[in-house]
């Protein structure tokens, strides 16, 4: 075996350095001999055992950072505990007094926050149910229930704001003025048709007091001789005795409320507007924060498509699953995911091989399909408009019992039916468009979202068309066939959203409990046939269920201004839906056959929730800023527009008025626009730099993977050469006597 002195010397290869975010990556090339003396000395110099030991200079801040890093390492608990004890056992070098005090404060805050989190962890709703769902169905399915819980928290915050600052002051404080007894609406011997009763409040010289008194008398007259069934019906409709209650906008007065034995006054209109702005702001911040977190999570996995099969096979398993049946479901879901990926690859290959005639035929089919989809959306909007108009026209007549209930609920019924059946038409059209499975899901969700938003937008337009009908300003309500605006149109809008919320919950109960039960029983008859059973038994459609939650929350945002009870109804509705959907998922339906990643699902649907938030809050802002309030009801009666209350309040405060006037000048807007442009460019530059850094790090990971493969190959070569040299050395050291003995035995 040649000695180290006899080895041929090789020139040291040039090292390439690559900068990555302030750190440097050294790419070294191996020499011909794995035991090259120069390279070996360099490597030995980098060994931890050859580094100078300085155990006395461990900084406390560094120790704390290392302890925090240990918590996030993917190691078993016992190994992390050993590492933690090793770090703690190091001799710490005391820092300065100020740094030591700051460090102790950080430790104290971290300990207090941790204890508070542990304390409140026991009060988190649905905690055990979430664990069961995650164990049986995986993280993708539990994302639906986490999203539901977030909306429940949001509606709880909105309900508390409305109750504490709007409802409660009217219940405990005193009014500063008494209502005047102005005649109007008192001459009716019995209940009149609603439109005719509203027109009875019109006159030549009407005032706010006249319209208010007339409206109160109309509501009181409608309550006469009501049976128990009528009262139950009024509860579902939000009319009669429920109309002048804190449930609706028309109950609240314009006059300020006074505190007992104090000179303070509670400005109800200003509080109404400020609470609306606050809960809209809270909702916006909550959505943006959750969406940003979802994007951060999804960004970690979005760029890994180049090794999607490897990621799916080796990192696609959900280790939260603890049940054999759930494991088989997860296996089937992964199977369908692989099948979908292979189908996508096949479709890509077919797309590349399409002829011009096939492309023309396919694009023609897609054009016709999208045109039919737009026609369906337009027809749905037209149906909602006609239903709202027909329901309002039936207010001219007095109906009894179920007929009146049907007329009042007609717009809500039409919207619910459209949301139930039109999506099936969209899915049927997609069978002719030949999209990839992933893009097909996105198109289905997009069309369903457009249907939901179009139905809400059409309903809002019907309200606007009803209010903006060129009625004379001197009238309390509409005065013609073309103008049927109610005497308190805000309460009318609140009643429609109130009914739609109740009906949507009842339909959810029917479609979740009543219909799947017979389908489940029928599926047991075909338990041996998986295909028929998959068709008969309902499947938990995760995207559709999430869209339903977004629709429910959109109703809550829009209805909170006109009916403060709508967020509370939504809160109760979401609470009951959690257990209903859990029972539906566990006992009545099949889990989805597609794999849904929790991070991507949350990010995508938070964006949809943000779009829905904008769609429903912009009309509320338009109502506040441009539309004239009713003369007969509400805290803004007598104003030209609701925002005028804020302007009047600002005029009473000279300092605030000067600030508002300055904010309307170019001296404020021009620097603000310049600052925003600079900030946008800064974040754009930071984003580009981060993107380039991510690309560099990805290339570095690929190069390091190749280096590891090369080193493993060199190690195997070296081990083989060492084993061969060891064997030859053993043969050469055998004594002659043993050779003779071996030869004799062989003979």
Q: How would you sum up this structure, described in words?
A:
The strands form 3 sheets. The protein has a 3-stranded antiparallel beta sheet, with helices on one face. Strands 1-2 form a two-stranded antiparallel sheet. Among the domains are: 55-111, no CATH class; 135-171 and 267-312 and 458-664, no CATH class; 665-711. Helix 14 packs antiparallel against helix 15 (437-467) and helix 19 runs parallel beside helix 21 (598-626). It is mainly α. The protein has helices at residues 37-45, 60-71, 77-88, 97-121, 127-137, 139-172, 194-199, 208-221, 228-237, 268-302, 308-315, 324-352, 356-393, 402-430, 437-467, 489-514, 516-525, 530-536, 542-562, 566-588, 598-626, 644-651, 654-663, 666-732, 736-746, and strands at residues 16-20, 23-27, 58-59, 92-93, 174-175, 257-258, 265-266. The radius of gyration is 36 Å and the shape is globular. It has 25 helices and 7 strands. Strand 1 and strand 2 (23-27) form a beta hairpin. Pfam families: TMC (PF07810). GO terms for molecular function: mechanosensitive monoatomic ion channel activity.
Any chance you could write out the topology, listing elements then pairs?
Layout: E1 16-20, E2 23-27, H1 37-45, E3 58-59, H2 60-71, H3 77-88, E4 92-93, H4 97-121, H5 127-137, H6 139-172, E5 174-175, H7 194-199, H8 208-221, H9 228-237, E6 257-258, E7 265-266, H10 268-302, H11 308-315, H12 324-352, H13 356-393, H14 402-430, H15 437-467, H16 489-514, H17 516-525, H18 530-536, H19 542-562, H20 566-588, H21 598-626, H22 644-651, H23 654-663, H24 666-732, H25 736-746
Parallel strand pairs: 3-4
Antiparallel strand pairs: 1-2, 5-6, 6-7
Helix pairs in contact: 2-3, 5-6, 6-10, 6-19, 6-20, 6-21, 10-21, 13-14, 13-15, 14-15, 14-16, 15-19, 15-21, 16-19, 16-20, 17-18, 19-20, 19-21
Membrane topology: Multi-pass membrane protein
Keywords: Membrane, Transmembrane, Transmembrane helix
InterPro entries: TMC, TMC_dom
